[in-house]
Write a structure and sequence with these properties.
mainly alpha, MetI-like fold, 12 helices, 72% helix, MetI-like
């Protein structure tokens, strides 16, 4: 077989794999939306769930999912980005940095159920926070931190060396170069890391079973005092997310319309993830263009 034929065969195989993966993804999303969109209406989106009767909604679970996402990102982005900046810009290649990278990769490979058990022992039991939003957010931060750190480090390292040298040659300090040149050039890659970690927050259930809990108290959406126990913003209350609710409905099956609830909640979850991805990428491109002038 000559080189030209081998090249055509390899190209065909790669195109076929890309087409097959895309078709599989479209079929999976289409299947979920086909079964779930018919269930979604205003009542379903805004009503609380009903464990034993038909007609329950997922309103509190949607709110909990977004609030948990915000809380988790508040911890994950600064810590992960800071660790990435240290490893890419300041740390020298020695035994200490190799140990840090090994620990990061080991932590990234841990099953989420193990992270959930750690959260149960430390945040829920030792710190006596109970099943709460803050315990779930910190457990997900532990889960997402290795991914955010690794992506931040790789993205910062991929910025062209000439940009750093030009900034330093103009008299900027190393910190000014990092803030005004390196981070700006790395925005598209950093946005990708944020999207990956956010998608994990939306879809994670195992770690939250042991930290955020599988129930939600009755919330008063006219009370936005974050220190009141019935306020939606109170972070020391149990908070069942949409992914946990899907698992609970399917595993318990007490509601007569459990299948319809699971289908509708799955479709909402898919739409939420797609919406967040699209908005994040648009915002990342807008920031990049605005800060670089391209």
């Amino acid at each position: 077989m000559n080189a030209r034929t081998s090249d055509k065969i390899a190209t065909f195989i790669f195109y076929f794999i890309a087409f097959f993966v895309s078709l599989l993804l479209i079929a999976l999303i289409g299947f979920i939306l086909y079964h779930g969109l018919g269930v979604i209406n205003w009542h379903f989106l805004t009503s609380p769930p009903n464990a034993f009767r038909k007609g329950g909604g997922v309103g509190p679970q949607i709110f909990n999912s977004f609030l948990l996402l915000v809380l988790t990102m508040v911890f994950t982005i600064p810590l992960g980005l800071g660790a990435g900046i240290y490893l890419a810009e300041f740390a020298r290649e020695n035994r200490w940095t190799r140990i840090i990278r090994i620990c990061t990769e080991t932590l990234a490979s841990l099953p989420s159920i193990v992270i959930g058990l750690f959260g149960l022992l430390f945040f829920v039991t030792v710190l006596k926070w109970g099943f709460s939003l803050i315990a779930g957010a910190l457990a997900l931060t532990v889960l997402n931190l290795p991914v955010m750190t690794r992506i931040s480090e790789d993205t910062l390292r991929s910025v062209k060396r000439e940009l750093r040298e030009a900034s330093l040659a103009l008299g900027a300090t190393q910190w000014q170069t990092i803030v005004h040149v390196v981070l700006v050039a790395a925005i598209p890659g950093l946005v990708t890391g944020i999207i990956l970690t956010a998608g994990r927050v939306f879809g994670e259930a195992a770690a939250l079973l042991y930290t955020a809990g599988i129930t939600t108290p009755r919330l008063q959406f006219n009370n936005w005092n974050p220190f009141h126990i019935n306020s939606p913003l109170y972070i020391f209350r149990p908070a069942e997310t949409l992914a946990v609710h899907i698992w609970k409905v399917n595993s318990e099956g007490l509601a007569p319309d459990a299948r319809q609830i699971a289908d509708g909640a799955s479709a909402i979850l898919i739409v939420m993830v797609l919406f967040f991805n699209i908005v994040s990428r648009w915002l990342g491109r807008w920031l990049y263009k605005r800060m670089t002038g391209n």
